[in-house]
Amino acid sequence: MRKLLLLVLLLCACPLARAQTDAGVKVVVGDTAYTIYKSVTQTGTKTPWRVFSFDVGGKTTKYLPGKLSNQPLDSQRPVFIIQLEGEARLADFAFIRLRVKGDRRLLPEPMPRDNEYTPVDLQSFIIQPLDDERFSVQPLSPLPQGEYILLDINQQPQGESSDYSGFCFTIE
Fold it and tell me: Global pTM?
């Protein structure tokens, strides 16, 4: 626990960590800090087929391309440094485990709030404020291996296909 606290304090003192002013997520594994860049979901729709004048089988899915995210992590309890922007609140952020199907990572449900998610709260995470807009967040229990997205579950959809943005990572 002391190592974690020292690492967080060192990261706070680092001028590179303070240079970023818009929303972002950094992750600390061991003595190394990584930046996780924002990804935007894409929308896929299955065309329904007609049975006795009823549409059957049409479905909208939200997905991210690729089997793996660009940020693999070899720790199941990494420390996330979350930088808030605008009216965002830490209580609105949540981790959603993605399903891998073919060459895509799918949100189980198209709307973020409809998915099974783990909210960033004191029951599931160690949360320490670093300043007014940055927080250190570490899971209390190890995250299972897989693909994840960290996003604001109350965000407004973007664009005409109502996509969402979040921070993707892989737990190896």
Answer: 0.79
